[in-house]
Amino acid sequence: MNDTPLIQLHNLGFSYAGEQTLHGIDLTVNESEFVAVIGPSGCGKSTLLRLASGLLMPSTGEVLVGGKPVTGPGLDRAMVFQDYSLFPWSNVTDNIVLALEQTHPALSKAERRQIAEEYLAMVGLAGSEKKLPGELSGGMRQRAAIARALAMNSPILLMDEPFGALDAITRARQQDMLLDIWQSGGSLKKTVLFVTHDVDEALILAGRVIVLGVRPGHIAADIAVDLPRPRSREKSVNSDRFRALRNRLLHELDLAVTRQLEAASEVREGSGI
Fold first, then answer.
1. Does domain 1-75+191-273 have CATH number 3.40.50.300?
2. Using CB atoms within 10 A of its CB, is residue 185 exposed (0-12), middle (13-18) or buried (19+)?
3. Largest Cα–Cα distance in the chain?
4. Please, are residues 120 and 181 in contact by the beta-carbon 8 Å criterion?
5. DSSP state at residue 165
6. Side-chain half-sphere exposure of 110, counting CA atoms within 13 A
7. Among the four 60, 89, 146, 256, which has the fewest Cβ within 10 Å?
8. Residues 49-100: pLDDT tens digits?
């Protein structure tokens, strides 16, 4: 792993409708690092990702990418959402071609189409290039969204629970696909910030796991995932180290939820409810 900082969050805070969602977030993600973010519902995981993407602006602190302040979305950051965000009226190839028009305007349409088809083949969608998103399963639509993000060739990949809506088998296959692509190295080894609710998913994929606490959202733990790479699901989940890391993460999550419940109880008691 390269130790060059690529994403830096300094004393980051965010408030919405008078309520502080995130407070005092200090986080550095190095080049080619895969970092997962987990935490209880409402802790601000997706908000953190949107701040890194530039879709939201912080109330306090700053976001730096490559040492420069983030003032909005940029071509150096590709985003994958849980809901796929594909244009339903365009086939999957054209969805990627449209993105490439923004990131690679100097390429010809034929060159952009060739790139799109290469990345669709990479994620196992060869033969589905002309299909509309509505003609694909949920897992196939998510693979198309990942192909689009990879084809943009941005150095940073931001992923907001990309497999959260999938069934268990499809989800495992998507995790394996992403792991294989990222571990293949070269230009495909992006710097990844990955939001998930799934502890096992975080451990299978990431090199570090950030646990967010709540009220307001803050970093409760920053845990290195010292499982060997290249990593495989079977070897990882059956190892004693994996089980130890899972237990530690579950403990941190349990603490976060307990503190959330205690804080909610104090609010109720203070208001006389």
1. yes
2. exposed
3. 67
4. no
5. T
6. 0
7. 89
8. 999 999 999 999 999 999 999 999 999 999 998 887 899 999 999 999 999 9
